[in-house]
Structure formats: structure tokens, C-alpha cells
Write a structure and sequence with these properties.
This protein is an all-beta fold. It has a domain of 194 residues: Lipopolysaccharide (LPS) transport protein A like domain (lipopolysaccharide transport protein A fold). It is built from two helices and 45 strands.
Length: 742
Amino acid sequence: MSGTLLALILSAQIYSEIPQFQRLSFNLPIAAEQGGGTAIGLAGQMEYLRPDFIVASGGVDVRYGAQRIRAQRLEMDLNNETVLAEGDVILDEGPQRLAGERLEYDLGTRTGTVYDAKATLAKDLYFYGAEMSKVGPDVYTVRDGVLTSCDSEDPAWSFRLSRARIVMEGFAKIYNTRMRVKKLPFLYTPFIMVPAKSERTSGLLTPNLGYSERRGGVVGLAWFQTFGDSYDATAFFDHYTEGIEAFGTEFRYAPLTGTAGYLVADFVDDKNNIFGNPEDEGELRWRVNWRHRSSELPLGLTAVVNHTDFSDFNFFRDFSRNFDSIRISRIQSSAFLQGSWGKHSGSLLLENQEQFINAGLTRSRRQLPELEYRLRATQIAGLPLYFNMAAGAHSFEIKSTDSPSISYQRVNLNPRLSVPLGVSWLSATVNIDARAATYSDSLSAELNDSGNREFTGESITQTVGSASANIIGPSFSRVFHKGVGQWGKFKHVIEPRWDYFSSADVDDRELIPQFDQIDSTRQATELATFRLVNRLLAKPEDEDSPFGAREIMSFELSQSFSFKDEQPLTRLTVPDMDGDGSPELLTKQESPISLQYRYRPSQTTNIDLSGTYNTLFNQFNRAAISGAKQFGSWRFSLNYSAVFDPQTGETTGSQARFGSVLGFFRQRLLIASQVNYDLELSLLQQQSHVIAFNTQCWSLRMDLREYKSLAREDRDIRFSISLKNIGTFLDLNDSTRQNDRF
């Protein structure tokens, strides 16, 4: 070792800027046959017990390749490349860190053992152990240890273990595991696997435990499988103690830039018919959900698929863990391809809408397909004249469980000419529209015995023309330079708006099938609407403020007038007024007056008031107020609406809705509530309360949802605990359904 000793470079550099820590820096060359390289370090004191054996103390810090060792005392055998470190030992190698009181380490093989150890082997994954060994480049073992994702000496939760084997970018296999909440024993399992990786990889996910009043206790198992960088899938199986088994999969993909999606399929075997569906006894109940989007197709096309289907409408009420979907009564699926090229655009749509009416009645409306073309406003020959157009071809199908299915086609064309006019204080636009639609089938003129019109198989064409005008102005405004609070100046704008609409009559309107807004069947109409808008804009006093001028207040009055005597805009049936014993219909060409007030003094405060005033009896027939205010992490909202008898002014209906979100302890604790109350019926229609507590390594959530009507009452309570890097560990659910009208 004389060559090694001669090659030793020892410099006594004193760190004068920190006089209380005088440390030596040293370089220790390692012979080529022993791995080569140089060990570089700092120490308070150094001595050589023999030429190839060094003892350093006083805050030792040694680096050799990717390895770094820090300790109070360190012995290094240069011949065997072994290290013995004691006192506050830290071994860093890349993102992995081992710490303890004593370290025995081989620099050549990069293996060793730490006693009374603490290790950070993956992001937010901590191990403690009486003995922890690095037995391979990425393999560790633990004896008599603890696993947690809590970075604390006294973790909120932990798994006590007899032994474990951890493969980095793989899994930690843990044996004889006892879960503890603080120091309280909670659960025992002979074996678990926990991911110990920064990238997603295949493997068994953490089992999920739960309970539901109707389904009983549940044990849920799931396997996650990757298929390269762009695909993965999760398969799951849930077993309930009440005889229910559920299984399914979620497949995700993103093979190309701009293309991504997922497919979810769930199947439930209700062996004991817990949910009372005798007609489906012995059959699987299921749900399918597919979402897809491709936004970078040739020719600038975009494709989107949104498909949902399930075996029965009660599937979500019986099995969904999502409160918002429990009362679902309608599903809509669609797939479309669309593109835009300058002023031209086109789309191809497939759509299905299905509505659940009751246990024996389901209705669906389909477009298979819809082909549509649109031309955006295009100026004609440099004149103040613009042309735009919409055209479409549709194939419809209407199905119902209580009647035969109907299918027919429609072709429609809707051109428009627009003439914009305007000066600085007034702007106006005049539009002339035409609409033509041809149907492959039509309805009968007479009603059948059920009071409905039947399809005749005869085609029909509808044509109708209309004209409209929109006028804004004359506008008046004034600027006030007197500042108030944070505002330096104000601008008040008075803006009258006039709208006029006239359409021709639709021939044979009762024969036209109704599917969407294109199928107009209204009579000839001519009406005008006047709106008077007051707006108050404010500009901050601070010219450097990131917020510019904005509207802080507005007030709008509006009323419409019908020029057709047979189409009054106000109708009201009142009791006998002339003594003949029959009710009387009162009409007025004017509509009720609508009022709308908005107040936005700051980003955290808003108030809205609205109402309609019936001029027949000079009474309000509707009024509503809503507002929201935020105080730091607390937010409150209130909505109230009421309906009045326009003749007597008495309240005939009123509802109130209150909502709040409260954040405590830097948003670690969130309490959110929403309550809907019918004041006239003295009925608490709906209430929702959520308490969520989030810490560095675990979260707790409790939900209470209740819905009431005169025909039904639903209540759901859920409690769940999630552990960081582990997942949802406990899920308890209690659901009740009473007086179900279905």
C-alpha cells in the first residue's frame, strides 16, 4: 500500500469563515484494481492507524462516486474498501437515503447494513427498522421495522412488520403486518405489497375494505397492468358479504399527441336479489362508459366519443359510489366528427338520448346520423351586407317500451342575410331569415283513441320566413372622477336596447314531427322587446393595479309587446268576476315587466336580484335574490325565490338554498354544506354535508346526502379513509330508500 500512501494528498485547509468548525479536506485515491476513483471528504480530525486504514471524526463527510456518507466517526479500510461509520449516520445514493446510528458498508459492491435505521427509498415512502440492509443495486431488506408515508417521528399511521424486501421501481413485499393508528393496533394481515416506484408499473393494488347497509361488508381487490408508455388497465373484483359480486375494468390510452381516452366496464351479480329486481334475477347488471378524443386528425378534423349505457336506470342508485349519479334518470351518448376551414365548418353527429320515466317505461331519441354544414357571416361584394347559412340532413329514430319505434328523415336549410348599421352612439342589425325543412314522414291530422297523432308515412315540407332587428342606443354615458374606496373613477352608461321579431305562419303545423328547435310549429308572430340597461363601471385608483376597469353594478328593465291580438303575452284565469259562475280569462298584449339587478363590488362579493311584475293587477308574480361572500377561506351563498298570486299578491311557493364552504388550519379541514328548503311545504328537500380532513400522509372524508320529495326519500352516508401512497383504505356506506315512487 506504499503507492497508495505516497499518492495520498492531505491538505489542512481551515474554514476561517466558520472558525468554530475548523475542518480538514482530504482526497483519498483508490487503486484501479480496487475500483479506482477518489474518495473526497471533510473531517474535523484524521489519523492513520496504518498506511491503508484511516480514522476520521468530528463531522465526517465523504463522497465516492454517487455515494455520500456522513457520520460523527468513520473508519475506512482502503485495502478492502470497507467503511464503518457511527453516530448520526446518513448514506445517500441517488434518490435513496439510509440513516441510522451505525453503518457497515462495502464501497466496491455498494452493499451494507444500517442499524437502528430510517430510510427514504421512494417519494414519501419511509421505512424504520432495527436493521436495514442494502443487498443489491436496488434491493433492500428490513428486519423488525415500520412502514409509513408520514414524515414524522410519531406517525399518524404505520405498518409494523417482521420483515420486508423492497425492490426499487418495483414493490415492497411486507410480511406479518400490523397496522397501527398512532400506537393503537387496528388491523393485521400476513402479507401486503406496496409500490416503491416513481413510474407507473404493473402490480396488485392495495385492497379496499368497506361496508354498506344493503350490500354488507366488502373486500375489494384490483390489479394494475401497464402496456408500454401509452396504455394501461385496471381490473377489479369486489366481494360483498350479502352475496353480491362486482367485477370490471378500466382501460386508458394516449397513443398519439392529441388522442386519448378511457373505457370503463362494470358488472354486478346480485345473486340474492338484494335490490329487488325480480325480472332481472339471475342476470348480470352492468354499466359501460367510453370517452375518447382525437384533436389532430387529417384535414383539421376532431373526433369525440362520449358513450354511456347501463342495464337499468336503478344501477346507479344501487351500486354507484358517486352521490351525484345516484338519482340519474337520463343518459346521453354521442359521437361526432367536426372540422373548420376558414368560413366553412361541418360536423357528423351520432346521438342517443334515453330517459327513464318509471319502472316499465323508457323512451329514447336517436340521431343516426346528423350531417351539418355551416357558413359563417360572409360579406357580399364589399357591400354592408352579410350572408350566412346552416344546412343539415338528419335521420331520426324514436323508441318507447310502450309503443312501436318510429324512424324518419329530415333535410333542412336556413340562410340568413344581415345588414349592420351604426354610428358612434347607436348600432343596429337587420336580419332576414328563411327556413325550409322536408320530412320523410308526417303526423295525422286527427288524434287517435289515446289522444296522440300517428305517423302516416307521407312526406311533408315546411317553409317559413322571418325578420328581426336589434338596436342598441342611443347610448349616454358620464365619467365621475371622484374616487371612492379602491376606485379612482366611475363611468355610468345608460343603454336602451330594442329587439323586433316577425315570422310568417307555418302551414299544417300540427302535421310536423317534433324533435328539436328546427321543427318550428308556432303561429305567425310579431313582437318587440324593449330593455333599458344601466351599467356602472369602475376603474382602480392605483394605475398599476392588475385589474382594469370592470362593471360593478347593473340594473335592467325589460318588457315585450305582441302586435298580434290573438297572441297576448300575459294570460291569467281568474274566478268569476261578472256573476255568471264561470272563470274569466284576462289578457294583455304586454308581457310582465322583468327586473334584473347585479352588484359586484369586489372579487369576493356578489348580489343578484330579479323579479317579474304583472301589470294586469300591478303585483309581483316572481321574485328572487341570491348572493355570495367570501372571507378568506370561508365562503357563504344564499338563494331565495318566491312565486306570488298576481291577483292577490299572496305567496304560492317559496324556496331557499344556503351553501357554505369553511376552511380551517390552512385548508387542511374543509366543511362544506348545502341545504334546500321549501318554505311553503315546510319540507327540507335536499341537504348535503361534507367534512374532509387532509394531512401530509392521510385524509378522512365523511358525506351526508339526503333528498326528500312528497313521493320519495333517499339518504346516503359515507365515511372513507385514504392513506398516502396506499389509496382508499376504508370505505363505509349506508344508504336508505323510502316511499320509492318507482
